Amino acid sequence: DVAADKAHKEVAKLDVAADEARGDVAKLDVAADKARRDVAKLDVAADEARGDIAKLAATLRRQAGVGEPRSGNEIVTEIATGTGIGSTPVPVVTVRTPPSPHLLVPNLTTAGTSSWDACGWCNACEVDAASVSASEAAASDGRVSLPTRWIPGREPGRGLAPGPGSGQGQAWASGHVQQTAQQTEERGGGRGLLMTVSLDTESPAFHADDHLPRCERCAGCSTELRPLNRAVTLGPHRYTNEPGASTASLFQASSPRAEGGYGIAKTWCFQKYYRNGQEQIDPACDGNKELKLQYQGMISRVEAMQAVADECGIGDVSVRHWRERIRSSHPISGDKIDGDVLFMNRAPGVSLEMFTRSGPEEMVTRDGSMVRGPSPHRLRHDVLRALDSRKVIRAALFDVLFGQCDRHGQNIFVTLDGEMTLIDNDQAFGRGWQRCAVNSVMIPGSEKFTIVRYGNAHVNGNQPPQKNMNVQVLLDYRCHAPGGALGDNFPPKFRRCIAWLAAASAPAVAARFGFRDPEEAAFVQRRAKSLEDKGFEGTVQDAQKELIEDTRRKGVSKHAKQISDKWPAPCCQLDEWRADGGGGDLQGYTCKQQSTCQGNYKACNPD
After folding, report:
1. Is 86 exposed, middle or buried (0-12, 13-18, 19+ CB in 10 A)?
2. Distance from C-alpha of 38 to C-alpha of 46, rounded to nearest angstrom
3. Rounded distance, CA 443 to CA 432, Å?
4. Which of 86, 107, 185, 431 is the least buried, fewest Cβ under 10 Å from its Cβ?
């Protein structure tokens, strides 16, 4: 016993030493992260300094009227000195700047407007009708840069809204936009060599425009790209939508096909950066044929879903998507892009997550002044209670038919008049960054729904279920279905559509709607057949059971976060929760059907 006690004490000492060592490692990790951020900041500062030097040299060259000979990769600058009055010769000083390991200093920034092919970077784009027409007519097939699709019955330039860059000869100084951390989606970054990004798989990684000048304006652009402004108004209230976690770059962009002339362009070709200046892990598409094919497939996937949704009468629940070939430039870095992007209309309103989890930032009064808004609890509750139940049902059908795996509050937008719109549908067909049967705040049993219902601290932590309810529980489809269940009571157009899909072969589905991946077409065909045979609830619960059993067989996986096929009673009627025993200010809402278990989710749901 004495020896055992001594051994236990030694083990305890070793545990303390191990904890101290882990603490030291954590401190070193923090210090290393800080050092990396400092290096990134220094790189950015050095690039800015080199850019300032290049601008100064360019100004002096213009003033002196001298040329710019080149020697290899060096930046050779001849700067005139002296006055040059009368016949006195002007001395010339030659300055040689070695190439930067991070950024090749651009040549002279040309003033005025230059042609697209004459420029390496474009600080701003001039949109002309001919380029808009060519862009609207052409779309890449993922292999070569040839027009493969024509849109009949549309005149060049039709649909462009008045405003900057919307007509021939107009430009927007995209290279000099005022940015804030909240309103700017993107920041540019330096590269060792300049490239024009493109999804065309046969395009070289480095184009013939390498080392050409940075131009003040480029003529011949088909659209202008602007940093995405995330500030929105909802009635008199002001919000700022989340930046999102997508590895793609999002821009406000002009398009004849977009509502109001402007939509959102999504591309995976630009290298993205974190706010501390470090590059994101996911690479840009240039120089990687397999990655280009993958991104082309993502555009095709969304296009095919759009076609199926339109055919099934549920296309109105999501923003409209289409492929469009553009010629433009990054509004901050000036890098050019000539290739396909995923275009979509902008969703009206504010994201459900921002609306339900944060109060409005400001409120606009009748005289135009800005004041802080009132308590948002009742506003949140009443807006979600006013949602069109038929549209909620169609949105739930959309998520189940396509096996959506990422339908959280940031991917649903709402308006004060009861409209809801889905965005970011590419994590679909039961796979994405994680496997799922369907993962949506509207579908019981799914991870997103369960976190909304019980709270993340309960599902992924050690807290009991939340008492102050997240009003997103009102999007539970059962709160909008007659009698609390959908069964096979589908809208007529949806019923006819899934009947065709269920009877068709997967290749026939792929051919009709344009699926490139046969597995995606097969998924839609199987899910449609299940909906026809088993109804809505049977389809979802069977898919959940199948995924749970498959996960158990293969071992627990963080990429298959299916919570339960046992659904809790819905919380369709919420009770006000007021301070001071019910006589004070509104603090939130409670649900009589909420679990009273005091453990975490695993303890409360041992099965």
Report:
1. exposed
2. 12
3. 18
4. 86
* Inter-residue contact 438 to 400 (CB < 8 Å): yes
Residue found by looking up tokens 């919000």 in the block: 239
Give, in order, the Cα–Cα distances in Å from 166 to each of 254, 321, 512: 7, 21, 35
Q: Which of 2-6, 176-180, 489-493 has the lowest mean pLDDT?
A: 176-180
Distance CA 189, CA 208 (A): 20
Q: Determine the Cα–Cα distance for residues 148 and 228; give it in Å rounded to an integer.
A: 29
Query: What is the C-alpha to C-alpha distance for residues 326 and 135, in angstroms, rounded to an integer?
Result: 6
The residue type found at 447 is E
CA angle 343, 345, 351 (to 5 degrees): 115
| Helix 506-513 / helix 289-311 crossing angle, nearest 10 deg | 90
Q: How many residues does the chain have?
A: 607
Which tokens belong to 157?
């330039």
CA-to-CA distance for 313 and 390, rounded, in angstroms?
Answer: 12
Give the Cα separation of 238 and 252 in Å (integer): 19
Pick from 315, 279, 323: nearest CA to 298: 323
pLDDT value of position 552 = 80
Give residue 473's identity as a one-letter amino acid code: V
**Structural tokens at position 457:** 């601290």
Residue pointed to by tokens 């200010």: 585
Residue among 54, 51, 56, 43 at smallest CA distance from 101:
43
Element (DSSP H or E) covering residue 29: helix 2-64
Handedness of CA 434, 436, 441, 447 (dihedral sign): negative
CA atoms of 422 and 348, how far apart (whole Å): 10
261-287: pLDDT as tens digits: 999 999 987 877 655 656 665 666 766
> What are the tokens at 103?
């950024």
Q: Give the relative orientation of helices 389-401 and 518-554 as an angle to the nearest 10 degrees.
A: 80
Mean pLDDT of the chain: 77
Sign of CA dihedral 309, 311, 315, 321: positive
DSSP 15: H
For 137, what's the count of Cα atoms within 13 Å in the CB-facing half-sphere? Answer: 14
- For residue 531, the tally of other CB atoms under 10 A from its CB is 25
Q: Contact at 8 Å (CB) between 470 and 356?
A: yes
Residue with tokens 């994680």: 434
Residue 85 CB-half CA count within 13 A: 1
Q: Give residue 468's identity as a one-letter amino acid code.
A: N
Q: How far apart are CA 184 and CA 489, in angstroms?
A: 44
Burial category of 132 from C-beta neighbours within 10 Å (exposed 0-12, middle 13-18, buried 19 and up) = buried
CA distance 23 to 142: 50
User: What distance in Å separates the CA atoms of residue 520 and residue 502, rounded to the nearest whole number?
Assistant: 14
Q: Please, which pLDDT band fits residue 135 given cuts at 50, 70 and 90? A: low
List, in order, residues 6 or more apart from 600 with CB less than 8 Å away: 458, 459, 461, 462, 463, 464
The two three-digit tokens of residue 65, written as one number: 């009227």
